[in-house]
From TrEMBL:
Pfam families: PadR (PF03551). InterPro entries: Tscrpt_reg_PadR_N, WH-like_DNA-bd_sf, WH_DNA-bd_sf. This is Transcription regulator PadR N-terminal domain-containing protein. Residues 152-215 form the Transcription regulator PadR N-terminal domain. Signal peptide: none annotated. It comes from the Bacteria. Gene3D superfamilies: Winged helix-like DNA-binding domain superfamily/Winged helix DNA-binding domain (1.10.10.10).
């Protein structure tokens, strides 16, 4: 899964940002930059020639300046490059930091690995929610919490699913999507529902079925794999700015 590409951040954007960031600290040549990229993003290989071409492009655009030492090209950032870097930071950094907070809470809840994160002080900002939905399957998150509640409760209200997600992670799907998922799960037979007051049909009670208990293991495993991968890449990105 190419996490950055999913949210409109391509390999080229990643290399470009790394050039700007590293060249703002030291003069650096393409070989060193290529090695740094591979250290930060193992498994996301990129050709050395591609790294060198990005540097040349940034030089032509006025964001990097080049000097030559013993036939090696070294690049440093220009004033225009520093401004361009600040624009990148303002565009992406807060977005990734806020999403990482939510992902870290989900990761700890699923794995119990590391130090327990601080509980959410506020829900994920509305402007970040569409990006979050491209990183983590909203359906799997919702189904996971439905099954999680069902393991400990005979019945529960549908609204409690979002309450739990917000309380634990600082994120939940829209109410409309929640009810869409519950209808789908009822049709699949993984949950069954009933109206608390059939004549009013306003409050829906949910119960996880035997089939749901079996399916819950697959949902949990899928979600765990997603969260581990996404967390790794988001943390790698945040390293740029720390």
């Amino acid at each position: 899964m190419d996490t950055f590409k999913q949210i409109g951040f391509s390999v080229g954007d990643t290399v470009k940002l790394l050039w700007l960031h590293r060249s703002s600290e030291i003069e650096i040549n393409p070989k060193e930059l290529h090695d740094t990229y591979e250290d930060l993003f193992p498994g996301r290989n990129v050709a050395y020639d591609y790294v060198a071409r990005i540097a040349k492009k940034l030089e032509n655009e006025g964001y990097l300046s080049m000097s030559q030492v013993q036939h090696k090209k070294y690049y440093s950032i220009t004033a225009s490059g520093k401004e361009h870097l600040r624009n990148y930071e303002s565009l992406y950094y807060n977005k990734f930091i806020e999403m990482l907070k939510v992902i870290e809470r989900i990761y700890f809840y699923l794995t119990k690995d590391g130090q327990k994160p601080e509980p959410p002080e506020y829900p994920l900002h509305q402007e970040f929610r569409s990006y979050f939905a491209k990183l983590i399957s909203v359906k799997d998150m919702t189904r996971f919490m439905i099954f999680n509640l069902g393991m400990n409760r005979t019945e529960f209200y549908a609204a409690e699913v979002n309450e739990q997600l917000n309380e634990l992670f600082g994120w939940s799907p829209s109410n409309g999507y929640l009810y869409e998922i519950t209808r789908e799960m009822e049709a699949e037979g993984t949950i069954k529902g009933r109206w608390k007051e059939p004549e009013k049909r306003t409050v829906r009670l949910i119960q996880v079925t035997d089939a749901g208990e079996v399916f819950a293991k697959q949902v949990s495993a899928n979600l765990r794999e997603q969260v581990i991968n996404v967390r790794k890449y988001i943390k790698s990105f945040v390293v740029f700015f720390e």
